[in-house]
């Protein structure tokens, strides 16, 4: 799958976002080593801290289906800037695949980083 195809899946997933509070829809498409892709969107809640980001929705879908071998994730938000994963999502993904590729996208453009570049020195014990 090309980067663009993975980003297109993230864009599609963002259409399911439940965002009555921020009105900022995010979509993620997470590719695993065997090529399986899990998508996710952000799901907000009136108790704002209970909001779940798109990336963690996708990651939990994958993990709960037995996939932990993440190789690439596309994250899309319809904002001015590239939609990089937040710190909590970086830490969450790094638990499973610190060297995975992260495609941070906005309309028509994206940047690629290794997760270890975006999130060095992850918490661990
Ligand atoms: N959000 C994500 O889905 N992923 C991130 O990495 C950062 C933020 C969501 C959470 C909230 O619904 C909205 O974006 C605004 O913060």
How would you describe this structure to a colleague?
With 125 residues, the chain is α+β, with helices and mostly antiparallel strands. A five-stranded mixed β-sheet has the order 2-1-3-4-5. β1 and β2 form a beta hairpin. The chain binds tetrahydrodeoxyuridine (THU). Tetrahydrodeoxyuridine (THU) binds next to α2.
Task: Offer a few descriptive terms.
alpha+beta; 5-stranded mixed sheet; 4 helices; globular; binds tetrahydrodeoxyuridine
Number of strands: 5
Fraction of residues in helix: 25-40%
State the low-pLDDT regions, or none: none
Anisotropy-based shape: globular
Structural class: alpha+beta
Work out the helix count.
4
Beta-sheet strand percentage?
25-35%
Largest sheet: spatial strand order: 2-1-3-4-5
Order of helices and strands: HEEHEHEEH
Terminal residue distance: 35 Å
Summed over residues and divided by their number, the pLDDT gives a mean of 98
* Biggest sheet descriptor: 5 strands, mixed
CA radius of gyration? 13 Å
Ligands = tetrahydrodeoxyuridine
């Amino acid at each position: 799958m090309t980067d663009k195809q993975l980003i297109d899946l993230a864009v599609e997933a963002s259409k399911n976002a439940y965002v009555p509070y921020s009105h900022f829809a995010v979509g993620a498409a997470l590719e695993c080593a065997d090529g399986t892709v899990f998508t996710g969107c952000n799901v907000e809640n009136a108790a704002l801290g209970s909001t779940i980001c798109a990336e963690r929705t996708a990651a939990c879908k994958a993990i709960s289906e037995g996939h932990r071998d993440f190789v690439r994730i596309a994250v899309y938000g319809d904002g001015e800037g590239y939609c990089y994963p937040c710190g909590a999502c970086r830490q969450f993904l790094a638990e499973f695949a610190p060297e995975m590729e992260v495609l941070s996208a906005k309309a028509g453009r994206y940047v690629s980083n290794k997760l270890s570049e975006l999130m060095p020195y992850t918490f661990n014990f």
